[in-house]
Design goal:
Order of helices and strands: EEEEEEEEEEEEEEEEEEEEEEEE
Structural class: mainly beta
Low-confidence stretches: 1-20
Strand content: over 45%
Helix content: under 10%
Number of domains: 2
Shape: globular
Number of strands: 24
Largest sheet: 10 strands, antiparallel
CATH topology of the largest domain: Jelly Rolls
Mean pLDDT: 90
Radius of gyration: 20 Å
């Protein structure tokens, strides 16, 4: 089974001398395992603040962050995460020290990992770039979209593939419906079930589809393979607005979810790195900036086209009538 490593920290930041600001901004990086890492650094007169998303999970504030000469230094615990029939589990592996240097808009980061038994792994190097400043919110009344493309033919999986071909495949087509039915197992050696993506990649678009969840269901719709719109059984749960939110970044304005077992309708626009989500004909995200990728992203590079992908390693889910209208420039 593929083991996924991620790191999670607390909420404090360390004090440091005033710096020139060369680390400021959002950074798109690739981990040594080839997965997405997002980093944001803010300089204040007497301290640094930082946030990170490491491969999977939520965006989290950095606790141990400071400068040593021309290096940005981050220290954090390291965990191995895996999905089981009882949800996400983790084992602590040890601790990581990340040392970053910047040359213009390019970042080189060295990863030193000390395992929990005191041994050290061979240091590895990561590369990344400073993200471009975010564009202003678009005037959606002026945006035009082309004729809709049917992404799913209702017969087979032509036009789709697993994001990782080594994963177990629980996707199939039944009665014109795209179905995922992973048989999740317990323990760290449980099989990893695969996410399903379009072979084709897209820039800006409008995506419309219907989906159905079982009770307790949990999945996700990734826009350009980077930004997860949450698909979760949140009907009637006070204070929980998960369905239609962008995971760990933008909460839904309201809980517009229908009961599990009913078909639900999404209408999603991604334009100039801003997202608008309608769920069951109710506005739940209104033209909000996507500051960076979410956990599980295929990469962290906001300026690149990418696929639509459906999360397949959590619970059962069904999709139908999947249509995408590309933006017309």
């Amino acid at each position: 089974m593929r083991l996924i490593v991620a790191c999670f920290l607390g909420a404090l930041t360390a004090f440091c001398p005033v710096m020139a600001g060369e680390f400021d901004g959002c950074w798109s990086l690739t981990s040594p395992a080839g997965r997405a890492v997002w980093l944001k650094i803010e300089q204040h007169p007497d301290q640094l603040e930082g946030w990170m998303m490491w491969e999977i999970g939520s965006v989290y504030p950095l606790k141990d962050l400071h400068r040593e000469g021309d290096q940005l230094v981050i220290r954090q615990p390291c965990y191995r995460w895996y999905m089981t029939s009882k949800g996400m589990k983790r084992d602590k592996l040890g601790s990581d020290t990340l040392r970053a240097r910047v040359n213009g808009d390019t970042m080189t980061m060295r990863l030193d990992r000390e395992l929990i038994d005191g041994t050290r792994e061979t240091p590895e190097t990561m590369q990344g770039v400073r993200a471009a400043p975010p564009p202003p919110a678009p005037d959606l009344w002026r945006i035009r979209f082309g004729e809709p493309l049917n992404l799913f033919n209702g017969v087979n999986l032509d036009g789709w593939r697993l994001t990782d071909p080594s994963d177990a495949n629980a996707w199939s087509v039944r009665n014109g419906i795209l179905c995922n039915n992973p048989q999740l197992e317990a323990g760290p050696k449980a099989r990893q079930f695969g996410n399903l993506r379009t072979i084709r990649e897209f820039d800006d678009f409008r995506l419309q589809l219907e989906l159905r969840l079982p009770p307790g269901g949990n999945s996700g719709i990734y826009l350009r393979g980077r930004y997860e719109v949450q698909v979760t059984d949140s009907y009637g749960r006070e204070g929980l607005r998960g369905m239609g939110s962008v995971y760990s970044r933008i909460p839904a304005l309201i809980n517009a979810a229908r009961p599990a077992g009913e078909w639900q309708e999404f209408d999603i626009m991604l334009v100039d790195r801003h997202v608008t989500v309608r769920l069951n004909d109710r506005l739940v995200i209104d033209n909000q900036l996507l500051e960076g990728c979410t956990g599980g992203a295929l990469d962290a590079y906001d300026d690149r086209p990418g696929p639509i992908y459906f999360q397949g390693d959590h619970t059962a889910v069904e999709y139908r009538n999947i249509r995408l209208s590309p933006r017309v420039q």
